[in-house]
Amino acid sequence: MEGATVRGIAKEAGLSLGALRHYFATQDELLMYAMQLVKERATARIAEISANEKWAPKERITKIFLELLPTNQEKMVEMEVWFAFTVYFRHKKDGFDAQHDGIYAAVRKLLDSADQLNLLRKELDKEMEAEKLYAVIDGLALHAYLEPQRVNGEWITKVLEHHLASLFH
Amino acid sequence: MEGATVRGIAKEAGLSLGALRHYFATQDELLMYAMQLVKERATARIAEISANEKWAPKERITKIFLELLPTNQEKMVEMEVWFAFTVYFRHKKDGFDAQHDGIYAAVRKLLDSADQLNLLRKELDKEMEAEKLYAVIDGLALHAYLEPQRVNGEWITKVLEHHLASLFH
DNA sequence: CTTTTATTAGCACAGTTGTATTATAAAAAT
DNA sequence: ATTTTTATAATACAACTGTGCTAATAAAAG
User: Fold this and answer.
1) One CATH from 2.102.10.10, 1.20.1280.170, 1.10.357.10, 1.20.1440.80 for B28-167
2) Chain centre distance of CA A95
3) What is the C-alpha separation between A118 and A167, in angstroms, rounded?
4) Contact between residue A85 and residue A31 where contact means Cβ atoms under 8 Å apart
5) Between residues 101 and 130 of chain A, which touch chain B (CB distance below 8 Å)?
6) How far is A6 from chain B (nearest CA, A)?
7) What is chain B's percent helix, strand, coil content, to nearest 5?
8) What is the pLDDT of residue B54?
9) Can you give the pLDDT at residue B91?
10) Cβ neighbours for B2, distance < 8 A, ≥ 6 positions apart
11) For chain B, what are the domain ranges?
12) What pLDDT, on a 0 to 100 scale, did the predictor assign at position B2?
């Protein structure tokens, strides 16, 4: 949250303090808006992949999961924003529950639909695998953020694809 | 880092500002010390498990990995500290490399020794599995931190044990 | 054309922060 | 015994922060 001061944001936007305050009465409003913006952008990208029928189901599902990883600069920035804000709001316990990710729910849904398409290995514990996959995704994202030189885009792509391959048959 | 102000820490310690400053000239020194303290405590706990021969190797290795997860209140607090400080120092790029986890290296080492004891399934790509396991560990830890009600100690224990079982034969 | 509303800019205020300085007491060293 | 080092406290300072307030200006509505 280092530069996310009201003054810093106003300067970046080319506005005065008062002008910015005309649109966002408090800092929290401003940060919430930024967080929602990131969420909407990511959701839109995923919806686009979801709707694109030129890929086979398995490929499409893989691409969706890959979309959750910071494999390029743009997504890395979004991820940093999301991450910083999550930690920030985590510490103002008030009304944070409503702000939750939804990624876990999305993972479960995707695994379910993969299962209905008969893509998954039969012996899997789906609840367990959902939790593991969710952990792999955020773990890789976190490591790409903290150790960008060692854990880069190509590598996390490979690792996630490898993990998904272990779920499909 | 909400309460980690110099004044806050001095008050918590029952010292005046000047007294605290006698031991830690700057805030960064203080935070670095706290970070190192957490690291030493965790390292000591792991060393203790490592040296305890009452467990079979597989069980021992499992216990070590479980030690990296915030399965109780104490470890959760340590993890929050570690986590907040990591993010904090990440943003002061200066001399952060030296402060790195070492968890990834530890995971690789443990997998190697498990392999030498013939505990691992033969067809595994060890580099890949180390990265995945590392991601699962930190992913679970992160989720336990952000969603403590859903992702609690027993559950992450179960999930990690399940994942380790998929590596052993 | 007048009036109302939306927008912008600037400043002030009160609080917090890290750090520097100075004074004083206690302990240790010489 | 005196000098030096260690420890503690209190205060000061400059910078930064979120937010409130006021006035001016542009745009829109009546």
Assistant:
1) 1.10.357.10
2) 20
3) 11
4) yes
5) 101, 104, 125, 128
6) 18
7) 70, 0, 25
8) 96
9) 77
10) A91
11) 28-167
12) 76
